[in-house]
User: Which sequence fits this backbone?
């Protein structure tokens, strides 16, 4: 018997999507593995089945409405997603379960969490999720990752401008960043607009949401990258005038 509620009518009403039997089984397995992992690691304080469903599953997927909902977008099987500061795998793992065409990279700075996630991915048999150990501020400078993603997700990692600074360099020009936020203020919109002018993105929309069981406020903030990220090291590759002179003299 399953511990988690299915809440199919809520999925349908709020997201315009219903998990299939296999996905429901994976949610259940995910829940059991998190409870088990919590015995060793401090993964999450959300452990009651109903709360887990709302705060981890529903909350992770609701912002993917443009990809899952009735008007869903065509996703090519090479669509690259990165979940920055994924922790115990949220929102990245539910996204990998719900959207099998998306290739999901789970990034976290804590080795123990990455080790847990590697074993979780194997136990759940997820073919489209992989992990990455590191700090976002380093990973974004790495050519293997910079500009490599179609979509970046970031939940509960820090201030909005910091989240944008981590996420924007990792997505391609034209790519999307989704900031998962609780409350949202006009001031945050202003801060983000300033960051956007600097980093080359526009705020596409700020969606106010209410969680379906406890009516808590959430905001999904969608950022569209409209310019390539300038490299922060361009100054270092310039050869100083004096050095050029010296090279000439040596000949
Ligand atoms: N996104 C998850 C976890 C949030 S807790 C959720 O919503 O449930 C924040 C997580 O971000 C922690 O696991 C922490 O290790 C990670 N983190 C914080 N700063 C980071 C950084 N600069 N780079 C990568 N991971 C970071």
Assistant:
């Amino acid at each position: 018997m399953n511990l988690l509620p299915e809440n199919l009518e809520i999925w349908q009403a709020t997201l315009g999507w219903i998990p299939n039997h296999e996905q429901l089984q994976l949610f259940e397995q995910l829940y059991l593995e998190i409870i088990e992992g919590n015995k060793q690691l401090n993964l999450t304080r959300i452990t009651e089945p109903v709360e887990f469903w709302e705060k981890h599953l529903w909350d992770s997927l609701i912002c993917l409405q443009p990809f899952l909902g009735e008007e869903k977008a065509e996703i090519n099987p090479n669509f690259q997603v990165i979940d920055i500061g994924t922790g115990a795998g949220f929102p990245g793992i539910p996204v990998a379960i719900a959207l099998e065409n998306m290739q999901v990279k789970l990034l976290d700075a804590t080795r123990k969490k990455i080790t847990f996630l590697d074993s979780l991915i194997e136990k759940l048999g997820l073919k489209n999720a992989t992990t990455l150990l590191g700090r976002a501020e380093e990973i974004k400078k790495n050519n293997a990752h910079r500009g490599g993603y179609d979509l970046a997700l970031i939940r509960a990692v820090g201030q909005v401008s910091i989240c944008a600074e981590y996420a924007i360099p990792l997505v391609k020009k034209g790519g999307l960043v989704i900031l998962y936020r609780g409350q949202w203020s006009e001031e945050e919109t202003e801060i983000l607009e300033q960051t956007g002018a600097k980093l080359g993105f526009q705020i596409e929309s700020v969606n106010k949401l209410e969680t379906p069981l406890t009516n808590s406020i959430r905001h999904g903030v969608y950022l569209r990258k409209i310019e390539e990220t300038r490299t922060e090291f361009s100054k270092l590759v310039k050869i100083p005038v004096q050095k050029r002179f010296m090279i000439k003299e040596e000949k």
In short: Residues 85-87, 90, 107-110, 113, 135-137, 155-157 surround S-adenosyl-L-homocysteine (CB under 6 Å). The longest helix spans residues 21-37.
